[in-house]
Automatic annotation (TrEMBL):
InterPro entries: ASB_dom_sf, Fe-S_L-Ser, Fe-S_L-Ser_mono, Ser_deHydtase-like_asu, Ser_deHydtase_bsu. It catalyses: L-serine = pyruvate + NH4(+). It comes from the Bacteria. Residues 4-155 form the Serine dehydratase beta chain domain. Pfam families: SDH_alpha, SDH_beta. Its cofactor is [4Fe-4S] cluster. It comes from Billgrantia ethanolica. This is L-serine dehydratase.
Amino acid sequence: MAISVFDLFKIGIGPSSSHTVGPMRAAHDFVEELRQRDLVERVARIEVKLFGSLSATGKGHATDRAVIMGLMGERPDRIDPAIVTPCIEELLETNTLMLDGRLAIPFLWTRDLQWYEECLPYHPNAMTLVAHGHSEELWRNTFYSVGGGFVIDEGQAERGELDQDSTVLPYDFNSAAELMALCRMHDMRISELMLENEKAWRSEAEIRDGLWQIWQAMQACVDKGLQQEGVLPGGLNVKRRAAALHRRLLATRDDQSLIASTFGAMDWVNVFALAVNEENAAGGRMVTAPTNGAAGIIPAVLHYYMKFQPGACERDVVDFLLAAGAVGILCKKNASISGAEVGCQGEVGSACAMAAAGLAEVMGGSVAQVENAAEIGLEHNLGLTCDPVGGLVQVPCIERNAIASVKAINAAQMSLRGDGEHFISLDKAIRTMRDTGRDMQDKYKETSRGGLAVNAIEC
């Protein structure tokens, strides 16, 4: 299985990569299947069946709305978030869905959108779409949203395929040990090896331009998050904090002692992470990195580097994201980046490890130090549960990104103060994440049936 850095960093919308981006992509793919079979014009009705975690927290994660927009022909990387609410309101008022953006068919929200607690065999994030003609079933397919916006269908699941991409990479690796061995054998940094692998898909100019566009999208998300105020949608009445904190930081920007202090730096990291995850919770445009629930960590750490490191430049952004991507690939291949599969350790833990690796890379760390930074970042998120209050990506998710961002910086700093030698390897930490996720009760895996999700409710 070949995974590109652009598979891990995708422009999309909030609030969830697995529950919003993935389902929208699956619904769009389903319409594409209908189009390829010349079935669109024959469709008289569409059924949407949501299972497992998509059912348990789907309303809080806007899964239902995402599927509808996908059926209307929208894609998560291109959709304007501002059109979602008006389109859904019109559908509810008219009971009409514009399939593929052009064919009006009846759609009754309470009849055609169905929620099931049961989990399908392959993955807890499952959905089945059924297209009916006037007197017969035309086509159906089941899709699994396996984390980070990745989607596979029933056929791929049965064949054990996690992804369709079979591209042959010049420096393929399946473990951190293999990655480090390849780097040493060919005298490459991790970012250099990743760049060579990415050339299997696109030119170096396209890679650098694409990653710079990812960085620009991250910056735009932070900028918007720093301007927005008020209460986040969903009913918890969680107030946005990033804008007010940013104003306080700007008011003290002439105080060099504060800016240079540890507390001042942490304030900036916190505000960057809060801005991203508040935008995500509001359904705004952001970058999956590697998931939406953990989308604030890598942008916060990269903003920290670009703001505080003298001489930081565009090349550093590319190297940061490439090195971070290498760690994300290892987490996805050998464990999971899905909160519904292994808990929040797979989302925030993976993102923290990725950010730590990226920072260590651009700070001049050796291959061993970069691997050590990632291991520290992941090790100290092991066992982290996914228990969002109300099924919303707000509590504890928003603050958790800020805390993990600071943790990633500390992990990179600790690794750079050492020589790269350490007791637990990154491979062992990832394996532990996988095993811990397997042992974790389902109520702690993005179902909102345990932990903070239930203890936050006052009886």
